[in-house]
Amino acid sequence: MGSSLLMAFALMLVIEGILPFVAPAAWRDTFLRLAQMADGQIRFVGLSSMLLGLALLWLLS
User: Fold this and answer.
1) Residue 37, in any domain of the structure
2) 2: in domain
3) Which H or E run contains 27?
4) pLDDT of 1 over the 80 cut
5) What is the DSSP secondary-structure string of 4-61?
6) Cα(9)–Cα(29) distance, rounded to whole angstroms?
């Protein structure tokens, strides 16, 4: 299980790095807009992301 978790983490880093590598200006603009959001909005985005990830894990297992 440890190696699977490390592989998942490595894949996450690769996916997270695609946008700043391909379109750094769009990545910067996205984070500037994110910094201007209220805490509740950021929490909602985080919760939505976690729920989507859990749903995908459930569907794929």
Assistant:
1) yes
2) no
3) helix 24-35
4) no
5) HHHHHHHHHHHHHHHHHHH-HHHHHHHHHHHHTS-HHHHHHHHHHHHHHHHHHHHHH-
6) 25
Short-list 31, 27, 7, 8, CA closest to 17: 27
Rounded Cα–Cα distance for residues 41 and 36 (Å): 10
Q: Is residue 18 part of a domain?
A: no
| pLDDT tens string 10-40 | 999 999 999 999 999 999 999 899 999 999 9
The encoded tokens of residue 8 equal 């998942």
Length of the chain measured in residues: 61
Q: Which amino acid is at 52?
A: L
Which amino acid type is present at position 14? V
In single-letter form, the type of residue at position 39 comes to D
